[in-house]
Structures are given as structure tokens and as C-alpha cells.
Specification:
Layout: H1 3-7, E1 20-21, H2 24-55, H3 59-85, E2 90-91, H4 93-104, H5 111-123, H6 134-137, H7 139-143, E3 152-153, H8 155-158, H9 160-163, H10 166-172, H11 175-223, H12 255-260, H13 276-286, E4 290-291, H14 298-310
Antiparallel strand pairs: 1-3, 2-4
């Protein structure tokens, strides 16, 4: 994106900052990113599925996929989403940098763009202005196709704090480096564990397949978690909870909970709602890397649930 043009508006009063940027250079960057980091990896994943029966899948492929999947989702859900988009907790400089790196490995966009678009989504959720609502554009639009080109939510309006964070900006400038690292690291591990065949297995499983399947896991929250599931809270949109996506998204699919309490570090509002990302945030807090961890009180949760029960019909 044209970062200079974005930052040039930072010193303007908030009321004068453009909320959405429409610029051909931005649109060209969006299309370029779509081809390089959505279409080409998908083609690579299809090639990997064809090649893996001949290469073989051993513990190397399973372990690299699992480890890289978890690390990448921590970067996206804990970092990009709960920390940088919603300020659900405060993080040390090293943790902020680490989460930017891990999130960038998923090739879902630089953190500032991701967070700006997500805050815009919350402001206009499931309306015609929402860039990725299935109720405005259909399933495939919300799942993937919206990324081809869309009105760009201005970071100077939606995420001025991130633009002023030197750790976030300095780390995210190497966005493509971190994507490449996410492909190279599992290949190196595979090589050390199993030679050339292990390197190929690590690259295909922990690199390519992990990247593409991880992207679709996140995109399911944009699409399926606004179409199918339960809605214990009335949130002014069509967000839903999906238990069957809870583990693949590490707790991100308790999406109605999230829209009810956007700034919470925990989506686990009932004992059976597993939220591994919150457990990881608790570990960071115990280590002193995370502070001011925000969680709604039981009274707040019960009050919002009672308010939902009093409203009818349930839409």
C-alpha cells in the first residue's frame, strides 16, 4: 500500500481523516497481493496434494504442519486480531514484534491493513459497507473474492496507534520476508530430520498446505461465522458461534461472543467453549509479557444474555 500517503494524514484532525481510501495504486496493490498470496499458494497447495502421495507423509509432515499451524494462528488470532485490532491486552515490545512475525507468515496482509479492515468490519458489520459480509455479497465474496479489490479502510482513521508504534511498523516492513520464512523454516526442520525428502515434506506440509488451509480457517470466520451457528447475544449483526470450528481456529469461531464483547481477550464465555488463544494469552501474562488482560465479568455476560432473551424475534 502507499504508506506515505496514508501516514501523511496522521497529523490531520480525526474528523478530517478519510475513512476509506479509493486510489488506483491501492487497488493495484490489492490485486497483486490477491494473485501472489491467495491464488499462487492455492495452486501450490493443489500441487502439494498431488505430490505428497509420492513423497510420503511421515511424522515430519504432521509435526511441521501442526507446529506451524499453531504458531501462525497465534500470530493471527492473538496478535493481529485480539491485540492489534481490539487492544484486548497490552504486550511487551518483543511480544508485539513476535506476533507481527507469526501473523505475517499467514500471508493475510500486513498487520496495519488487517487491523484497519477488521475495525471497519465491526463498525459496518453485515451492512452494504462491510467489505466481507456474506449477507451483502454472498458466501464466496465474504470468504475470498472480496480481497481482489475493495474500498481500503484508512489506517490513519482506524489504526493511528499502530502507525505510531515503531515496533509494529519496523517489523511489518519485512512482511514478505516473514511469509518466506514461514515456508523455509519447516523445510529446514525437515531437512535436519529427514534429509532432502524431509525438506520437501516439511516445505509442502508445514509451509504450503499450512499457509493455504490456515487462510481458509480464518476466512471461515468471515463467511460461515456470519451464516451458520448459534447467536446467544444480539449484536446488531449476523455473527454466530460455531463449536466445530473452535479448535481449527484456536477459539476464533466463538464469533458471536466476540461481537458481543469485541475487546475481550477471551471468547470463552461458557465452560464448554474452548479458547486455546486465551490460554496462550494467560501464559504470556504469567511470563510478564502481557498485561491489562481484558475479560468481561460474569455480571456483564449474564446481563447481555438476559437482554438478548428479552428481545424478539431472534433474528
Amino acid at each position: 500500500m502507499n504508506r506515505g500517503a496514508i501516514e501523511a494524514t496522521l497529523d490531520a484532525p480525526a474528523s478530517r481523516r478519510r475513512r476509506v481510501l479509493r486510489d488506483e495504486s491501492i487497488a493495484a496493490a490489492q490485486r497483486r497481493h490477491f494473485v501472489l498470496f491467495d491464488i499462487i499458494p492455492t495452486a501450490g497447495a493443489l500441487a502439494a496434494i498431488i505430490a505428497l502421495p509420492f513423497v510420503g507423509v511421515s511424522w515430519i509432515g504432521v509435526s511441521t504442519f501442526t507446529i506451524m499451524w499453531i504458531l501462525n494462528l497465534v500470530g493471527i488470532e492473538v496478535g493481529y486480531h485480539r491485540l492489534f485490532s481490539h487492544g484486548a491486552f497490552d504486550a511487551s515490545p518483543r511480544l508485539r514484534a513476535g506476533l507481527v512475525i507469526l501473523g505475517s507468515m499467514g500471508a493475510q496482509g500486513p498487520v496495519v491493513s488487517w487491523a484497519s479492515n477488521h475495525r471497519h468490519h465491526h463498525q459496518h458489520s453485515d451492512t452494504d459497507e462491510d467489505t466481507h459480509s456474506p449477507h451483502a455479497g454472498g458466501f464466496w465474496h465474504s470468504h475470498l473474492l472480496w480481497k481482489w479489490s475493495y474500498p481500503y479502510p484508512s489506517p490513519s482513521h482506524y489504526t493511528p496507534g499502530l502507525l505510531r508504534d515503531p515496533v509494529v511498523i519496523r517489523t511489518s516492513r519485512r512482511y514478505t520476508t516473514w511469509i518466506a520464512l514461514g515456508l523455509i523454516v519447516p523445510a529446514i526442520f525437515g531437512a535436519l530430520a529427514g534429509g532432502p525428502r524431509g525438506a520437501l515434506e516439511g516445505f509442502l506440509c508445514g509451509g504450503v498446505l499450512r499457509l493455504v488451509i490456515g487462510q481458509h480457517a480464518t476466512w471461515c470466520i468471515n463467511s460461515l461465522c456470519h451464516l451458520v451457528g448459534t447467536r446467544p447475544f444480539r449484536t446488531g449483526d449476523r455473527s454466530t458461534n460455531n463449536a466445530w470450528l473452535a479448535l481449527p481456529t484456536l477459539g476464533g469461531s466463538w464469533h458471536n461472543n466476540h461481537h458481543a464483547f469485541p475487546t475481550t481477550a477471551s471468547n470463552q464465555l461458557a465452560w464448554y467453549q474452548l479458547d486455546p488463544c486465551y490460554w496462550i494469552i494467560r501464559v504470556f501474562a504469567r511470563c510478564g509479557a502481557a498485561t491489562n488482560v481484558k475479560v468481561p465479568t460474569r455480571a456483564q455476560v449474564d446481563g447481555k444474555r438476559r437482554a438478548a432473551d428479552l428481545r424478539s424475534p431472534r433474528a
